[in-house]
Design goal:
It is built from twelve helices and twelve strands. The chain is α+β, with helices and mostly antiparallel strands and 346 residues long. A hairpin with a 4-residue loop joins strand 11 and strand 12. The longest helix is centred in the first third of the chain and has 17 residues.
Length: 346
């Protein structure tokens, strides 16, 4: 099978996406797939004399992962990336990306954040008849918007922290008591997320969140333990507990090896395990998700659980959670990638 692994882009999670893409690409190559790795924004320029032979692109004996580098502690400089594409404002897709995706049997989506997870690329692929991994454009959009996700959680009886949402410039009449969580409404990888304990920290957190989105969520702070539960084709995986050594599970703690202690299966009672898995499966259904996703949870000192959000294209990096959950079932990273791909093709 000819597979395009699609990564990169222009979101704040670009570096994470490139790392996910490299691992997925190498996993699929090891399983015998004719896979190539493309940056969705920068694309691929044909080599001289190969413009009319797309098949030869998939048959090249080369390491497409190349030198992608490691994930830094800071967000990538997206303006530098955009400067590499003078025509980027007219067409998000880089040179020949669509042609190669159409020539493939399937696209493995290794994109994270804006455009990759908000449903726009999925809608485009649906119109062009391109098969891809992950959920469709409607459920992508629902899950990307944290406010809509929480509304659906409440409608389906899935516990979630109390919250308010408001847009930039809107008067802030309602309040969530301190401490509270401030986050960009449609962000990911904890970019633009802060804990505020004072009025000064609150205003600073709002200013930061509004750098990434015109709408923010202010959420009840849950003091307790953090968990995540992957779901594949509607069935929950083992629960994983996340315990950062310092602070909360922010961008640095997510992607710097050794910054967080992750325990899978989580050391909780069988009853709590079933409860978290049940809510994860219900969130999967409420958001109309398909293929696979990952749900994040908090549990307070009383043992009450709260669903925070859903991730429709979970990270597939060396420190990512979903591969660790699959490994707890005896599933290798290569097998996980192949199962995701096979489900999409079916």
């Amino acid at each position: 099978m000819k597979i395009v692994v699609l990564a990169g882009g222009t979101s704040t999670e670009r570096d994470v996406s490139l790392s996910s893409g490299a691992m997925i690409y190498r996993a699929l190559k090891s399983r015998g797939y004719n896979a190539i790795l493309l940056d969705v924004y920068l694309g691929y320029e044909w080599e001289e004399g190969k413009q009319n032979n797309i098949e030869s692109i998939f048959d090249q004996d080369r390491d497409w992962a190349g030198e992608l580098g490691s994930i830094s502690e800071q967000n990538p400089d997206i303006e530098q990336v955009k400067a590499m594409r003078p025509d980027g404002e007219k067409n998000f897709f880089g040179p020949n990306v669509i042609r190669l995706c159409q020539a493939s049997d399937a696209v493995f989506m290794a994109l994270h954040g804006e455009n990759g997870e908000n449903g726009k690329i999925q809608a485009c692929f649906d119109l062009m008849g391109i098969t891809y991994t992950g959920t469709d454009y409607v459920s992508s959009a629902l899950a990307m918007d944290k406010g809509i996700s929480k509304e659906l959680f409440i409608c389906h009886g899935i516990p979630t922290p109390a919250y308010i949402r408001f847009q930039k410039g809107q008067e802030k009449k309602e309040r969530i008591s301190f401490p509270c969580i401030v986050k960009a409404c449609c962000g990911g990888s904890s970019v633009g997320v802060s804990i505020a304990e004072t009025e000064m920290e609150y205003e600073r957190a709002l200013a930061e969140a509004f750098q990434y989105d015109d709408e923010v969520i202010v959420e009840q702070y849950i003091d307790g333990r953090e968990f995540s539960v992957g779901v594949m084709e509607g069935k929950a995986l083992p629960v994983i507990e996340i315990a950062p050594l310092e602070g909360f599970y922010n961008y640095k703690n997510k992607y710097q090896p050794g910054a967080t202690v992750e325990t899978c299966p989580a050391r909780i009672s069988p009853e709590k395990t079933r409860e978290l898995q049940k809510y994860a499966e219900e969130a999967f259904t409420a958001l109309r998700l398909k293929n696979y996703a990952r749900m994040d949870f908090m549990m307070n000192g009383k043992g009450e659980v709260f669903c925070l959000e859903a991730n429709t294209l979970p990270g597939m990096t060396p420190t990512s959670l979903l591969p660790q959950e699959a490994a707890a079932l005896g599933m290798s990273f290569e097998e996980l990638c192949e199962r995701i791909l096979e489900a999409a093709v079916r």
